Amino acid sequence: MTISNSPFLFFGMLAWACLGSIVVSAQDDARLAKGETIYRSQCAECHGDRGQGVAGAFDDPLLGDASVGELTELISETMPEEEPEACVAEDAAAVAHYIHYSFYSPAAQLRNRPPQVQLSRLTGDQLRQSIADLYGRFQSPVWMENKRGLRGVYFDGARWKKENIKLERIDANLDFDFAHESPVEGVGNEEFYIEWTGALKVNHTGRYELVLRSTCSSMMYFGHLKRELINNHVQSAGKTEFRRTLTLTAGRAYPLRITFVQRKRKTEQPPATVSLSWVPPGGVEQIIPSRHLLAAAMPPSFSLQSKLPPDDRSYGYARGTAVDRQWDDSTTAAAIEFAQIAIDELYPEYLRRHRKDADENRGKLRAFLLEVVETAFRGPVDEATRQLYIDRQLDASPDDAEAIKRVCLLTLKSPRFLYPALDANRTPSQRTASRLALTLHDSLPVDKYLLQAVQQDRLQTDQQIADMARRMVNDYRTHAKMRAFLYAWFDLADAHDISKDSDAFPGFDAALLSDLRRSFDAMADEIVWSDSSDFRQLFQADWTFTTDRLTEFYGETWKPSEAAESAEPKDLSGPALRRTVSAPQTRMGLLTHPLVMSNLAYHDTSSPIHRGVFLIRHSLGRTLRPPNQAFTPIDADLHPDLTTRQRVALQTNEVSCQVCHQKINPLGFTLENFDAVGRFRTKEHGKIVDAEGHYTTAAGQQVRFAGPRELAEFLATSEDSQRAFVESMFEYFVKQPIAAYGVDTGDRLTKEFRDSGFHIQKLLVAIAVTAAKQPASHSQS
């Protein structure tokens, strides 16, 4: 890796300094005045007097993060469009300096239009998590369970009878073919009863198809040990497969119970087989692996089935900004759905727990509904609010079920629930608890330890808030949100269906893609949740996790290490993920994981453009303007002798293209050693792959790379990359612009991140503390 100063480094360093200071010297004043004069006479007609753009000429505003030096070169070569030689050398530098200082640079944008914490509604994920925790408020707390699999209890006889228990064990998963034999020693083969209990742990939100196959009488309860999902108690002739599709929420553990009965028959007895499979979002059907099964009696859980509209993600993170008929209808459906589960499960269970309490004037129902309302509103309610949301609704309906529906609909449609930033009337501890829960769990403050801290007013100091955040990080919900963030940062959030030319890449199919997702998830979890939690390993790790299928497809460097421990419990459905051998020349952390590389590629070729855009926008946090027009890539068959690099260079060699592609291509080319499926290669069409490239930093230094390893080392140590990661994580978790929390917040968090040894978990705690301490800005009144 070679670092050199551009001819305009002075201007670039000055621009970078502008991020922290807006002091302008007398010399700068003269240059600014000269630049303004030239800009108004030669540029404003097309770009507007403040760079805002002019309809029909140049619509896009002049905003970006290029250095003064880069702008100077661009202006010298291309502007004005009809007569570029009219503004060169010192004149171009003066114009670049003027527009950079006045409206183009990030510092100018902050100065001209300081960002603010926006009043926004819950996003779709936040609504799902909040309603799930509103249900969970009435259950015992969830914990992080280490035992994997399902707890199986085997009975000799066709029903549950304690004295007939012959064996209790943990089964890694559910996939048994007992045929006509005894399932375990001591149990007869003609008549037996088996009950499996545990929980299904979900890592990604989406639609899941659960598949129970059983040749004998069977029942399946899901989400609650009494909530029936599949009923095959009385068998239908020839029917042995039962499918149910559910929306499940990431970071949740859903309790399940399956009963399996072989009965004595006068007719021929069928062979006893049973299995539990699933089709996860974007995946293939498979026996549910043990890593997703918890051998513990988890509390009941609820997952919203109502369909929610997608959120605006144009800023790189989900924002709750759109309020329209579709959103209104979906929140109404969600409120009605929750009301029904409250009627069917929550209130009957509440009555059983409070059966000895007095019930004068429907006191139990009022107390139940008060807990619902105060949980949804993230704190106690005053007398006027209680009368509006509870008393008037009960007065209007003598039927308890109807009253519950009225209260739930009114509560879950209220801005007090849907707009969590309406917290100015809360105490500091209440406000802090609400923000910690929203930042880390996308949810409401419902955990008993958190609510106890609120009651004792122990969320006042930075230390108290940080201690609480550290505790809340160790939670399935936080782990799921971190995984979703990494999917977004590596541009995988929408990578549901990656397909390749079956002739060019035989074996790259849905099953292989499923294994790649498993591998990526396991590697991400290992890096983030290890003791070191080292950001640099996202680019520097020379290992990953593999399966037999991945080893067969990707070759020697994907073989498991002989000394490697499994990344998950031993799995009856196939070999577990295992850590690979070290491969420093061909593997650079998650950056070059085949899931990432294959997503940033075409059906049959690699795509330096996609990869270059990804590196600039995601890995380095820089801006690119949208292309002037869409274009179709040059068909590789038209130039069979050209490498992909040569073909892309030919495609983008026009001056208008080079404005952006002089940044995109040199970065994308550094990953050309990875083909369309992410396999490492040294040759393409018999020619040596040229993976050299370069990048100009925000400070104006040009860095040259001899290949992907040097690129990865740069990304691991570059301030541009580190700051991009900090800002992206902040905005993904908080869902607000980082500068709205202070113009120096990005600098401060980046420095703390660096000082911590690039510890990702510590960064997350610092982000949560920053969000929790923001002064209240919106009142419920």
UniProtKB/TrEMBL annotation:
SMART domains given in the database record: PA14
Single GO MF annotation: electron transfer activity
Cytochrome c domain residues: 30-103
Signal peptide from the UniProt entry: 1-26
InterPro entries the UniProt entry points to: Cyt_c-like_dom, Cyt_c-like_dom_sf, DUF1585, DUF1588, DUF1592, PA14/GLEYA, PA14_dom
Sections of the chain in a coiled coil: none
Keywords recorded for this protein, A-Z: Heme, Iron, Metal-binding, Signal
Domain PA14 stretches: 145-292
Identification of the protein by name: PA14 domain protein
Organism, scientific name: Roseimaritima ulvae
